[in-house]
Write a structure and sequence with these properties.
The chain is α/β, with parallel strands linked by helices. The protein has 7 helices and 9 strands.
Length: 204
């Protein structure tokens, strides 16, 4: 099995620019990536990074600066074995949740994200291709049907939680098990309850 982790090495986590400056966003993205790689290694696989630019990380790196869909589809087209694609910002991922994905049945296994995205997938069908634009989970269901592939949904809170918005940082602080929660705490972030929903605040 080939396991790849796409990573934006040029302008990561841009939607967090209200709470993190550019250097912090790059550093935080690298911490998230390292946590995901560690979670995957905990299953016994050796993941590789599919990056938009050269990257110093403890894993093999392939550089492809094309849009995410094109870069991942090139990997799928070239593969002669099952391919798992796990996003680099799944801060709650653990070896257990990753093992559920990698051991899932079906020609295609999909781990949906909140809001209709696809946070991780496993493709065993040689003709399946991805489309990460918009509500990609629905698009991937359709893509699987078009090639006659069976689909299994991996229902996982940990794989469904990616880090894009300020509110997502609260999930990292509450449930994260890697280095990302400590990174946030060291920079003054604390969980808060605002109107019954979790959030974060940052101490100066």
């Amino acid at each position: 099995m080939r396991v790849v982790v796409p990573f934006d090495a040029t302008d990561p986590k841009s939607r967090l620019d209200a709470v993190l400056d550019a250097d912090e966003r790059r550093e935080f993205a690298a911490v998230l990536l390292a946590d995901v790689l560690d979670a995957l290694r905990g299953t016994g696989v050796d993941p590789a990074v599919l990056a938009t630019a050269p990257l110093d990380v403890d894993a093999p790196v392939t550089v492809d600066d094309r849009p995410l869909t094109d870069a991942v589809n090139a990997v799928l087209a070239d593969a002669d074995e099952p391919v798992a694609v796990v996003m680099a910002d799944l801060a709650l991922a653990t070896p257990g949740s990753c093992r559920r994905l990698l051991g899932a049945p079906g020609d295609v296994a999909l781990a949906p994200g909140r809001g209709g995205g696809t946070n991780a997938l496993l493709a065993r069908h040689p003709d399946f291709r991805v489309d990460y634009h918009g509500r990609s989970y629905v698009d991937h269901l359709r893509a699987a049907r078009r090639v006659g592939a069976s689909v299994f949904e991996v229902d996982s809170h940990r794989l469904a939680t990616d880090v894009d918005e300020r509110a997502d940082l609260g999930e990292v602080l509450l449930h994260g098990e890697g280095d990302a929660p400590d990174w946030l705490r060291e920079r003054g972030f604390r969980p808060t309850a605002d109107g019954g929903r979790g959030g974060v605040r940052r101490r100066n």
